[in-house]
Design a protein that fits this description.
This protein is an alpha/beta fold and 465 residues long. The chain is built from 19 helices and 16 strands. The chain folds into three domains: 129 residues, Rossmann fold, CATH 3.40.50; 170 residues, P-loop containing nucleotide triphosphate hydrolases (Rossmann fold, 3-Layer(aba) Sandwich), CATH 3.40.50; 77 residues, Orthogonal Bundle (Helicase, Ruva Protein, domain 3). The protein is 47% helix and 13% strand. The strands form five sheets. It has a five-stranded parallel sheet with strand order 2-1-3-4-5, sandwiched between helices.
């Protein structure tokens, strides 16, 4: 799409010169011979860039700029000035002008300034879009999961997002600890500032210290320049310390000091810097057990364990699996340009029976693989990995009485309904109306659940429309 430029100058010769030059560059150029005419055009049309002479009778360039800042502050303005009026040009910069250029100007330099101004506008527009995408992605409405455990977590996240308290997120690998940390950040007052994450277990102590606190030039071999640490980079925002249980006792002392004093010192430096960072930590280890074993400092544990959020493993919230599966199916359909519609009932049963040691991350990888490999309209068992097929075999057991550990009633009832519907269809040779009668269901209700369970993904079953 061609970018629209508005040129404002009371000299017709200058307007014509700029118009010819910029149209050759591929821009759509609109002209105004006065500040009054420019303001009228601004109220009726949309522009990507405004170029205005500063000295004009009536409403001058400063007046145009002030009005632009009121109406469309996101649109960059370039001021053209004579050498004698550079003080006014500096005033224009203070008021929000992108840049100014002095007459007589160099044409190539002018083209570069215009190009840079438009590029900055494009980047700002992209940043706004990305910020909105991040907000939508990590909004509470965007979370997938209807189980009681996840509802309680979402409620807690919503309540703690508005605080500056340190958050401790625990749970097995793959349960979504960093996702929760990002949700807290992007729903807080710090959302416009950086979210920075680091895996504390992935680096040896010297490198981790340098990454977190920064270093001075020459402080160690290879430190050829000074470098900011992640605490400084995240200033005003959030620092996510993943796998904090992997840190050494020496590093734990340094982290404790930072959390207590809110000051850091770069490696090799003497100056201390105050920081304003919200810290969220996470681990898949039992920190209380590590404290008892004297492998994790007790004082640091109490410092980070202000508010704890425990992420449940997927096997404890299997009622969320159908929604997660649909979410990942839609995601990878879009990524690879496919239109896989759903899953056979055999696949659904298999996914519900599997124990998911890798939790949500393993489930997502499974669906990504299935979408990539599947050639039909529904995911078949052949597109599921052999390990999951092997460990998800067998019929779902329905207990005769309530086990002491409890039961996921919703999942069991869904499985029972699907099984009886399949058996009824098999008994009446696939005639839906007769199968519905056998089960005491209305035909409309039968059709609804048949679609929900993707029963007719099996071509052997005949649908009587």
């Amino acid at each position: 799409m061609q970018e629209r430029l508005l040129i404002v100058d009371d000299e017709q010769g200058m307007r014509n010169l700029l118009s010819i030059m910029l149209r050759k560059q591929g821009y759509l150029v609109h002209l105004a011979g006065s500040g009054e005419e420019a303001l009228k055009k601004l109220s009726n049309d949309v522009y990507d860039l405004i170029i205005s002479d500063i000295s004009m009778p009536g409403i001058d360039g400063i007046g145009v700029l002030r009005r632009v800042q009121e109406l469309v502050p996101e649109v960059p303005t370039i001021i053209i000035t004579a050498y004698a009026s550079t003080e006014s040009a500096i005033e224009a910069l203070k008021l929000g002008a992108y840049d100014y250029i002095v007459k007589p100007f160099d044409v190539e330099e002018f083209k570069i300034i215009i190009s840079n101004a438009l590029e900055r506008k494009r980047l700002e527009r992209e940043n706004q879009y990305l910020r909105k995408e991040l907000h939508d992605q990590y909004s509470f409405e965007g979370f997938v999961g209807k189980s009681q455990k996840m509802k309680e977590i979402f409620s807690l996240v919503e309540r703690v997002s508005g605080t500056n308290s340190t958050i401790f997120v625990s749970g097995e690998s793959g349960t979504g600890k960093e996702l929760i940390a990002r949700a807290i950040h992007y729903n807080s007052q710090r959302k416009e500032k950086p979210f920075v994450s680091i895996n504390c277990g992935a680096l040896p102590d010297p490198l981790l210290e340098s990454e977190l606190f920064g270093h001075m030039k020459g402080s160690f071999t290879g430190a050829v320049t000074a470098k900011k640490g992640l605490f400084e980079v995240a200033d005003g925002g959030t620092l996510f310390l993943d796998e904090i249980g992997e840190t050494s006792p020496a590093m734990q002392i340094k982290l404790l000091r930072v959390l207590q004093e809110r000051k850091i010192r770069r490696v090799g430096g003497t100056e201390e810097f105050e920081i304003d960072v919200r810290v969220i930590v996470a681990t898949n280890q039992d920190l209380e057990a590590l404290v008892e074993q004297r492998k994790f400092r007790e004082d640091l544990f109490y410092r980070i364990n202000v508010i704890q959020i425990e992420m449940p493993p997927l096997r404890d919230k299997t009622e969320d699996i159908p929604d997660l599966v649909r979410h990942f199916l839609d995601k990878y359909n879009q990524q690879v340009g496919k239109k896989v519609e759903g899953f056979t009932q055999e696949v659904v049963d298999c996914l519900l029976r599997y124990h998911w040691p890798g939790n949500v991350r393993e489930l997502e990888n499974t669906i990504e693989r299935a979408v990539a490999l599947e050639t039909s309209s529904n995911i078949q068992m052949e597109s599921i990995s052999e390990n999951i097929r092997k460990n998800g075999k067998g019929k779902t057991e329905f207990p005769a009485s309530l086990p002491s550990s409890g039961v996921n009633l919703e999942v069991h009832l869904e499985g029972l309904r699907a099984r009886f519907m399949l058996e009824a269809l098999d008994r009446v040779n696939g005639v839906q109306s007769r199968a519905a009668e056998l089960l005491g269901m209305s035909f409309r209700s039968f059709r609804y659940f048949a679609k929900k369970y993707n029963i007719f993904g099996d071509p052997a079953i005949r649908a009587d429309l």
